[in-house]
């Protein structure tokens, strides 16, 4: 098994007052030639949005965009005619394909919004854009991983245009999480949202991450109550 460690303190950052972001990979004002992407994982932004603020209409194309809501609400509108709110516990996916425009705002007058925005390079280029969102609050079971995003159609997870699987779970301290790579050649990027854990001798604290590849499986051991996101993605 090969590993690449991404400590939280080595992430890039940006503070616009209304938007505070930490970047696991080169993005916007921050560039690190050693942290441009991990396989097909291009962007992992840890964002805080102030009440009443957000992004106006802006374009995307040929990218799979996944938003995991951690707290608060985002109001979404796009050029496909979708409009609505995404709340904590929900996941949003957009296949930008040939091109979309969308906006994202925190509609609350008092509550902050926190979220993870993740971009993957697509499996197929120039597809018809598509949108979906779903709440996984009731599906999450303590000390189990729940698949929230998948490249397999027909599952309970949200479909994306890539051979990827995103799983998330809340775990007590002292648990072992055994993960089997689902598609040969894939790697996994493990993001410690909350808590502390260990993987093959590497310690993961809050917002640390580790990428693993050239392996068929791995085991995470939780050292404190933890929320963990595992992103299995193609490495090429």
With strands numbered from the N-terminus, the spatial order across the biggest sheet is: 1-20-17-22-15-13-14
Report helical residue fraction: under 10%
Radius of gyration: 17 Å
Tally the helices.
0
Content-based structural category: mainly beta
The biggest beta sheet reads: 7 strands, mixed
The helix/strand series, from N terminus to C terminus, equals: EEEEEEEEEEEEEEEEEEEEEE
Mean pLDDT rating: 97
- Give the percentage of residues in beta strands: over 45%
Q: Per the principal axes of the C-alpha atoms, what is the gross shape?
A: globular
How many domains would you count in the coordinates?
1
First and last CA, distance: 17 Å
CATH class: Mainly Beta
> How many strand units?
22
If you consult CATH, what is the topology?
A: Jelly Rolls
| CATH architectural type | Sandwich
- The residue ranges in which pLDDT falls below 50 over 5 or more consecutive positions are none
